[in-house]
Design brief:
There is one protein chain. Helices cover 36% and strands 21% of the residues. The strands form five sheets. A seven-stranded parallel beta sheet has the order 3-2-1-4-5-6-11, sandwiched between helices. The protein has a six-stranded antiparallel beta sheet with strand order 14-19-18-17-16-15, with helices on one face. Helix 4 links the parallel strand 5 and strand 6. It holds the Pfam family DUF2867.
Length: 472
Amino acid sequence: MRVLITGTTGYIAKRLALQLLEDDHELVCCVRDLNRIPDEIEDHPLCSFIKVDFLKPEDAEIPKDIDAAYYLIHSMSTSSDDFEDLEQQCAQNFKKLVEPTNCKQVLFLSGIVNDASLSKHLKSRLQVENTLKSETYALTTFRAGIIVGSGSASFEIIRDIVEKLPFMITPRWLNTKTQPLAVRDVLNFLAGGLGKTELYNNAYDIYGPEVLTYKEMLLQFAEVRGLKRYIVTLPVLTPKLSSYWLYFVTSTSFKLAAALVDSMKVEVIGKPSDINTIIGIEPVDYKTAVDLAFQKIEQNAVISSWKDAVSSGRFKDQLSKHIELPTFGCFQDVKQRKVTDEEFTLNKIWAIGGRNGWYSFNGLWKLRGYMDKLFGGVGLRRGRTSDTYLEAGDALDFWRVLYASKEEKRLLLFAEMRLPGEAWLEFKIVDDQLQQRAVFRPKGIWGRLYWYAVLPFHAFVFNGMINALVKK
């Protein structure tokens, strides 16, 4: 089948594309930025890519000869307060573009919406589902609860909490019940539902075999990791305080933390159906899902992460608009060293940040991350998805990868920390010389004052970093 996929660079779609290619489907992948095509599928003979921004679809052209489409666009992690309006716009524009094609089925991944009182997020998901319904194609909706897998938002947040806090004083919503589902089972439902006419114009809850509270999920996660954890829940923590608690303990943004707290107050229990039998799936239990996720992490084989969604940080534009470093009205710190072993230096550059640190004065980098977190920024806790691999769009601590090419020997990062201006950090090898360039475009007088305030630290921090990149 010829299948259209939206949200190609997102957590679910990136993994689903690989699974559909294994099943020999031909894919038409929608991306907002053609410079951000996932490396894993970029050169695949069954893949083609089209530039589509579903918020601005004026110039978009969807091929007429598609058989089915996946709607996997999600705005929950966006920093915008009006994510509900954004989701509606995307769904409406998608529908207008797909209806004139030969598409027979649209598959949509939503959330379980059985509770009498829904969160803003789940209400938005239900509205999107209703918007996508059409008389020209059949809609198949899979409604999932908490998704557990390496790189998923829920998994990474639980991991942060469990591994950092031996004793926890937690909000009362930890007693809310849910039915977690392994990401591999989510993908199997999505792939298995493709082309099945008996699923046309129906919605199905998909969920794991256990009903657990969030507290039980934390404790079972700790068991899998061989950790002893103690949890006390208090009724006095308000939603706002709970959001701050999540924000400071985990790698999530405050906006996402607030959205999650709002959702976690709602029970997510699925309605029984025959969907497992129709597709032939027996979902794994929660502990198995956690164990499988860590197998991927230990193999450094995490395909996608919620943190790599551009909307998970402060970046709003297409990456390609920022690839060329500005010069007018900018401050620069440029350093250069001779490269004696090019492969060694490139590997060090591609491994920078995350658990590997920044090779020089890591305490100061951590301090800058803490300061950023205090002022509402992303901090250093996002880390990186892979310890050795980078591609455009990846989160790298409080940076966003704009460009990464080992062939061109260039890595370009854009700062997502709280700054009175914009900042870039570039590493490039030219004629056996490593060029390390920090560029800052200040915004007003505060931007200029900020540059001069941090300039003394550049002398030893950036010198130490470039020296570590060239010396074995």
